[in-house]
Amino acid sequence: MDRVLRVLTDFMTRQQRLVLVIAVLASFVAFLDSSVINVALPAMTGELGGGLTVQQWIVDAYLITLGSLILLAGSVSDVYGRIVVLRVGLIGFGVASVLIAVAGSAEFVIAMRAVQGIAGALLVPSSLAIIMSSFRDAAQAKAIGQWTAWTSAAFLAGPFLGGVFVDYLSWRLVFAINVIPIIVTLILLGMLGQKDIRRAGVHIDYPGAVLGIIGLGGPVFALIEQGNLGWAHPAIYLPFGLGLLSFAAFIWWQSRAKNPMLPLELFRIRNFSAGNLSTALVYGALSIGGFIVVIFLQEVAGFTATAAALALLPVSIGNVLLSSFFGGLSGKYGPRLFMTAGPIIAGAGYLLLLGMGQSVNYLVNVLPGILLFAVGLSMTVAPLTAAVLGSVSAAQSGIGSAVNNAVARVAGLVAIAMLGVIIVGKLDVDGFHRVLIVTAALLILGGIVSFVGIRNPTKSAEPSGEQPAA
Predict the structure, then answer these.
(1) What's the pLDDT band for 468 if we cut at 50, 70, 90?
(2) pTM of the shown model
(3) For residue 130, which phi and psi values (nearest 5 degrees)?
(4) Distance between CA 385 and CA 312 in Å, rounded?
(5) What values do phi and psi take at 244, rounded to 5?
(6) Higher pLDDT, 151 or 206
(7) C-alpha closest to that of 374 among 328, 338, 333, 322
(8) Kindly report the CA angle at 230 between 226 and 235, in degrees rounded to 5?
(9) What is the mean pLDDT of residues 63-89?
């Protein structure tokens, strides 16, 4: 193992190599799981029962707890120590994965997906935190670059592996396979022997966490279940109203809390607020679009799980190959142009998919739109991240990244919950086309928001407040 690590990371000490591999493996588990789930959904509901509503819940149960608690993970790590939190997250994710693999009902799967979300909220921030604490200066930048590259591989490998498992083995292996990297990571953590660091005077925002979960969970429950019960049912309008009140209370509490999960003052920075609004629109579109295309190809067009997964592979490949290129151009010319053009091009790609019907020819009906979407997405991601994180000071980069990550997750959560409202009943060609139009509209609106709100920083500008206009 040590020889392999040295080949991959020869600029690091042995301790640093261990830290990087631990961080990569821990994050890889969470990214892999989120990238394979859409492919496995039809097989899961085919065996356990349920239709679109159950599929929505399997995705959103994870996103509710993840999106609600990911901002809390930083203070939890400060109080209990990063290594302890990372170990708890790994064990929790592994146990939940095994239980999903042997589940006998859709309800049990949904409950365990919520547990996975809690564990996932501990994994990614803690993984980045141990990198930040173990590397400095240029070595830190290289380590983060390698972490990004290897975790991106999860999005390449995940759907294909999921499709193969579903078609030739069992969807249950999609979750059981998580145990292997988790066990390896736990062994490496033991080998690391790093002393945990705990910060004094840090408090966990428990009220904020509770209000956040209710504020997200109530409206999401109502949006998903309204198709079954109707908006006039108390089981729908009461959770919806309580959720909205709780979310309002969450925002109020964050303005008063000593250690807030969500520092509202960051949103006074123009590029940070505009960048996060664009993030919400773009990542909401990514979630709803990716979900519906994979499900439609399997359930309506008759594709196998592997074929449906491979249909979207150009998106992952394009993102890996082109993101660095567009990131470099963004650094030279500023992010505004790319954050404007990228989502609009990606939206045009989804409009091209409107040629898909009951019968689908991949080369004619799917590939052109997917390729256009891949170019637009690749043009968007790196400049968007640079604009958001570049708008805050270095000392705020950690919380800035966490907020942006949470915004993306919550946007995906709400978008998936809205599917039932858009499709209206069972998934068919007309409902699919409506979702494609909504996806394209969200992407195009994200580009418009960027054009209006984002400002290119001047070469001498410091990211400590309002960015000067380009």
Answers:
(1) very low
(2) 0.78
(3) -70, -25
(4) 23
(5) -65, -40
(6) 206
(7) 322
(8) 75
(9) 79
Fold match between domain 1-200 and domain 265-457: yes
465: left (phi over 0), alpha (psi -120 to 50) or beta: left
The pLDDT, as a whole number, for residue 367 is: 92
Sign of the alpha-carbon dihedral angle for 363, 365, 367, 372: positive
Q: Percentage of the chain surpassing pLDDT 70?
A: 84
Please report the pLDDT score of residue 33 as a whole number. Answer: 76
| 54/153 Cα distance (integer angstroms) | 28
Angle at 96 between CA 410 and CA 187, to 5 degrees: 105
Which tokens belong to 164?
A: 């193969």
Task: Specify the DSSP class assigned to residue 469.
Answer: P
CA distance 98 to 113: 11
CATH topology of domain 265-457: Growth Hormone; Chain: A; (1.20.1250)
**How many CA atoms lie within 13 Å of 159's alpha carbon, on the beta-carbon side?**
25
pLDDT tier, 397 (very low <50, low <70, confident <90, very high otherwise): low
Class of the CATH domain delimited by 1-200? mainly alpha
Going by C-alpha positions, the residue among 285, 257, 271, 417 that lies closest to residue 344 is 285
Provide mean pLDDT across the span 162-169.
84
Query: What are 147's two structure tokens?
Result: 């972490």
Q: Provide mean pLDDT across the span 118-133.
A: 75
Listed residue (54, 53, 131) closest to 86, CA to CA: 131
Answer whether 379's CB lies under 8 Å from 341's CB: yes
Domain range summary for the chain, segments of one domain joined by +: 1-200, 206-256, 265-457
